[in-house]
Amino acid sequence: EVQLVESGGGLVQPGGSLRLSCAASGFTFSSYEMNWVRQAPGKGLEWVSYISSSGSTIYYADSVKGRFTISRDNAKNSLYLQMNSLRAEDTAVYYCARPDQIRVDYYYYYYMDVWGKGTTVTVSS
Amino acid sequence: DIQMTQSPSSLSASVGDRVTITCRASQSISSYLNWYQQKPGKAPKLLIYAASSLQSGVPSRFSGSGSGTDFTLTISSLQPEDFATYYCQQSYSTPRITFGQGTRLEIK
Questions:
Q1: A16 Cα to chain B: minimum distance (Å)
Q2: Pair B11, B107: CB distance under 8 Å
Q3: Among A16, A70, B66, B82, which is 20 to 30 Å from B35 by CA?
């Protein structure tokens, strides 16, 4: 069974740090790009960060750039998100999500077809 | 960034109704549009990709259409399990994807 399982969430004070993990199973993790997506309480979905299959290409949303670091260990089938200088507005459920793509004619269409159940991060004093 | 705007933000409907949700992009995104369903306390689930392609295992009462800037998700006959929140998402600017704000579908 294809599965993603997040862990590492919790309560942290403003300015603190937290490291999230996402364990992948049931597919060849090293062949897939990966994303982190978050959802603040009662709000919509927000893309946070992307990492290529090799880890050589990384992108961040402006809201977390300079504070969060995405990484992966393909030997351990794991994705990580190091979160520093946390703010109240970082409070959210954090999902890891596996993107995939399909070719139709000459075009590649990209979507996220596997999601973890999420881990909750609460930033509060 | 490409902004995605859904309408309505919330919708009340009855079992058996036909429902349409609209998503508009701030610029043309061709057919790089996906739809997700999310139930309370659960992760999003992919329904439609490439604007109109049904994800494997998704009931055929769900359909998507549109291209350019205007897209629709239609549920032909609402079932009790369809009451959820729906999100559109553009993949034109992959990997910097963006989501609509969501449409909450409630039971009338």
A1: 26
A2: no
A3: A70
User: H-helix or E-strand containing B86?
Assistant: strand B85-90
Q: Which of A16, A22, A17, A18 is nearest to A34 (CA)?
A: A22
CA neighbor of B36 nearest in space, from A10, A81, A112:
A112
A88: left (phi over 0), alpha (psi -120 to 50) or beta: alpha
Q: What is the pLDDT of residue A7?
A: 98
pLDDT at position B58 over 90: yes
- Chain-centroid distance, C-alpha B51: 9
What is chain A's pLDDT, residue by residue, as a tens digit (125 residues)?
A: 999 999 999 999 999 999 999 999 999 999 999 999 999 999 999 999 999 999 999 999 999 999 999 999 999 999 999 999 999 999 999 999 999 999 988 889 999 999 999 999 999 99
Contact B35, B74 (CB under 8 A): no
Rounded to whole angstroms, the Cα distance separating A69 from A22 reads: 14
A-chain CB neighbours of B31 within 8 Å are 107, 109
What confidence score (pLDDT) does residue B69 get?
98
Of A61, A95, A104, the CB nearest to B43: A95
